[in-house]
């Protein structure tokens, strides 16, 4: 019996259990609907808080003071940002890291001198590598000031007369739409519950692969000429595809029936679904072969999967800092969300490599352990 035959009969056997499949698919969908409705308000932005912005004025002249004074005294700007003086760039960086300020602006020591000599001048803006809308607000305010300043210099150069501007018009109120760029509650939980369901598919790897190496059937198989690696690969493929098919049904149902936002194309989403299925199956198979006990391995996977989901914010949006990157759920979330909402492609690539590399490592450990068990 070759790998394809083993995989085929494994899938056929799993999908034949209709009751179990319906529960595995539609219970998570019901959870998505309930969480999406219950937590809808926490995902909607009703207003923006005033943004804390640090500033460091190193200017040896008076122009820097004029800039800071304008930012502090313009009423329309004060509705958006609040300036906090810092003593050094190092202090400002520490405040950004601790989220005490969102960003900070720096005026260098030659700011006035450059302005008077008509040299190229600039106000530097620093922020976190992972900035959000707050940086855009600060940049727009400073761009508005720069445009006014450049226009003033140009007019004075031609007319030799000073120009007055109404600074209350520096910032104008415009409606901002974030439709499609920020997940609604149902969009968020569609991803996290899908990942939870796929990782729970580790039970397939545990049960289907384990029975060939631990149960009575495993002893019979080892007495036949069936290649143990072929047997393992066939069962892994069958278990993975069974898990993947269930996940695919969830994606298609939520996309076309619940109108969940899965991005501009379903192809990468389907690819990530398959990759997460591979990882989950490999994890379940490894635990089973290492423990030599299907029940103990199943209990461990049932314990780890909810923990992985919790650390990654799958139940409630909580940031556990760098520890969340130890969770395979976080790897999958990063791949899904950054693809759906046009995020950092490097993070997507890194997450895919983590899932794929993790699958290879887990599978290699399983094959080595299985060969030792069969000797």
Automatic annotation (TrEMBL):
Locations listed in the record: Membrane
InterPro entries on file: ABC2_TM, T7SS_ABC-Transporter
Annotated Gene3D superfamilies: abc type-2 transporter like domain
GO molecular function (one): ABC-type transporter activity
Keyword Transmembrane helix: yes
Membrane topology: Multi-pass membrane protein
Pfam family, any one: ABC2_membrane_3
Domain ABC-2 type transporter transmembrane: 25-367
Presence of keyword Nucleotide-binding: no
One Gene Ontology term, aspect cellular component: membrane
Major localization class: membrane
Membrane-spanning intervals of the chain: 21-39, 188-210, 236-257, 269-292, 299-318, 347-370
Source species, domain of life: Bacteria
Keywords, in A-Z order: Membrane, Transmembrane, Transmembrane helix
PANTHER family the record matches: TRANSPORT PERMEASE PROTEIN (PTHR43077:SF10), TRANSPORT PERMEASE YVFS-RELATED (PTHR43077)
Name of this chain's protein: ABC-2 type transport system permease protein
Organism in which the protein naturally occurs: Anaerosporobacter mobilis DSM 15930
């Amino acid at each position: 019996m070759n790998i394809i035959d083993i995989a085929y009969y494994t899938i056929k056997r799993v999908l034949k259990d209709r009751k179990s499949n319906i529960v595995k698919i539609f219970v998570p969908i019901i959870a998505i609907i309930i969480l999406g409705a219950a937590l809808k308000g926490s995902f909607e932005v009703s207003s923006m808080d005033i943004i804390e912005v640090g500033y460091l004025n190193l200017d040896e002249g008076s122009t820097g003071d004029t800039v800071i004074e304008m930012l502090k005294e313009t009423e329309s700007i004060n509705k958006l940002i609040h300036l906090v003086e810092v003593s050094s760039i190092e202090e400002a960086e520490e405040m950004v890291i601790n989220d005490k300020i969102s960003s900070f602006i720096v005026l260098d020591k030659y700011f006035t001198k450059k302005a008077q000599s008509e040299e190229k001048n600039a106000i530097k803006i620093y922020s976190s590598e992972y900035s959000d809308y707050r940086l855009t607000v600060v940049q727009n305010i400073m761009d508005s000031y720069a445009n006014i300043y450049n226009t003033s210099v140009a007019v004075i150069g031609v007319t030799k007369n000073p120009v007055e501007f109404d600074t209350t018009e520096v910032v104008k109120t415009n409606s901002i739409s974030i439709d499609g760029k920020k997940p609604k509650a149902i969009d968020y939980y569609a991803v996290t519950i899908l990942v939870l369901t796929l990782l729970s598919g580790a039970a397939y790897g545990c049960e289907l692969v384990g029975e060939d190496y631990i149960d009575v059937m495993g002893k019979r198989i080892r007495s036949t000429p069936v290649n143990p690696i072929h047997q393992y690969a066939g069962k892994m493929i069958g278990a993975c595809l069974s898990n993947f098919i269930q996940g695919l049904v969830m994606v298609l149902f939520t996309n076309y029936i619940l109108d969940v936002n899965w991005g501009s194309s379903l192809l990468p989403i389907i690819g990530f679904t398959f990759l997460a299925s591979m990882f989950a199956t490999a994890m379940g198979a490894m635990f089973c072969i290492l423990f030599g006990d299907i029940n103990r391995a199943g209990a461990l996977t049932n314990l780890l999967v909810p923990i992985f989901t919790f650390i990654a914010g799958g139940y409630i949006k909580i940031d556990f800092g760098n520890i969340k990157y130890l969770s395979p759920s976080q790897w999958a979330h990063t791949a899904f969300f950054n693809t759906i909402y046009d995020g950092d492609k490097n993070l997507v690539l890194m997450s895919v490599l983590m899932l794929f590399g993790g699958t290879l490592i887990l599978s290699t450990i399983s094959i080595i352990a299985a060969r030792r068990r069969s000797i």
